C-alpha cells in the first residue's frame, strides 16, 4: 500500500522514484532525499551551495561503516566518505558546498552545483563499488524528492 502511494505521488509531481533494495522490515542504508534546487537565485554562494544536498538514511538497527562509500550524480560528480559511521536509525546530509563535517552533516567542498534542477540520479555505492541504492527525479515543479 505504501509503495502504491509513493508511485502515485511520483506521478503527481513528475518525479521518477527508484525502489529501495531491502524490505522495510529489515531496513537498509539508502538514498533518502535529494534537495536539488536550493532556494533563491543560484549565485554559487556557500549558503546556496549548502542548501543543495542529498541525505542517506540508515533504517537498520545497527551502525553502518560508510568508509569508502560513494554518492554520485548522473554526470559522475562523486563524494567519497572518509572514516565515517552512520548510526542506527540516523540520517546524514551531504551538502554540496564547504563546511565543517559533523556526524549529521558532511560537506563536499565544491564551488559549483552538483544536482541538476530538472533531472538527475543519485547513486549510492559501497566501498567495493556495489550499487546499494539509487534515486532519480525528473521534475522542475518541486525543489526536492523523497526517495
In short:
The chain has 147 residues and is mainly β. The protein has two helices and eleven strands; from the N terminus they run αβαββββββββββ.
CATH architecture: Sandwich
Helix content: 10-25%
| CATH class value | Mainly Beta
Profile the largest sheet.
5 strands, mixed
CATH topology: Immunoglobulin-like
Number of domains: 1
Average pLDDT confidence is 86
Taken as a percent bin, the fraction of beta residues is 25-35%
The arrangement of helices and strands along the chain is: HEHEEEEEEEEEE
Spans of 5+ residues with little confidence (pLDDT < 50)? 1-25
- Shape descriptor reads globular
Distance between the termini: 16 Å
Total helices: the number is 2
CATH homologous superfamily classification: Lamin Tail domain
Q: What is the tally of beta strands?
A: 11
The Rg value, from CA coordinates, equals 15 Å
Structural class designation = mainly beta
Pfam families: LTD
Keywords: Signal
Protein name: LTD domain-containing protein
InterPro entries: Lamin_tail_dom, Lamin_tail_dom_sf
Structure notes:
The protein is mainly beta and 147 residues long. It has a single domain, classed as Immunoglobulin-like. It has helices spanning 2-13, 46-50, and strands at residues 29-35, 53-58, 64-65, 70-72, 78-80, 85-86, 90-95, 105-107, 119-125, 131-138, 144-146. The strands form three sheets. A five-stranded mixed β-sheet has the order 8-7-2-1-11, with no helix packed on it. It has a four-stranded antiparallel β-sheet with strand order 5-4-9-10, with no helix packed on it. β4 and β5 form a beta hairpin. It is globular, with a radius of gyration of 15 Å. It starts with a helix and ends with a strand. Keywords: Signal. Residues 1-24 form the signal peptide. It comes from Actinacidiphila reveromycinica.
Amino acid at each position: 500500500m505504501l509503495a502504491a502511494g509513493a508511485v502515485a505521488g511520483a506521478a503527481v509531481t513528475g518525479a521518477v522514484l527508484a525502489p529501495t533494495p531491502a524490505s522495510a522490515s529489515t531496513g537498509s542504508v539508502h538514498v533518502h532525499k535529494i534537495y536539488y534546487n536550493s532556494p533563491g537565485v543560484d549565485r554559487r554562494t556557500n549558503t546556496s551551495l549548502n542548501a543543495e544536498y542529498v541525505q542517506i538514511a540508515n533504517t537498520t538497527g545497527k551502525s553502518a561503516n560508510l568508509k569508502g562509500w560513494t554518492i554520485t550524480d548522473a554526470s559522475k560528480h562523486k563524494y567519497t566518505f572518509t572514516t565515517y559511521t552512520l548510526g542506527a536509525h540516523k540520517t546524514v546530509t551531504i551538502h554540496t558546498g564547504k563546511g565543517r563535517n559533523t556526524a549529521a552533516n558532511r560537506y563536499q567542498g565544491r564551488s559549483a552545483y552538483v544536482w541538476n534542477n530538472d533531472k538527475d540520479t543519485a547513486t549510492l555505492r559501497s566501498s567495493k563499488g556495489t550499487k546499494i541504492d539509487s534515486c532519480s527525479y525528473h521534475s522542475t515543479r518541486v525543489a526536492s524528492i523523497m526517495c
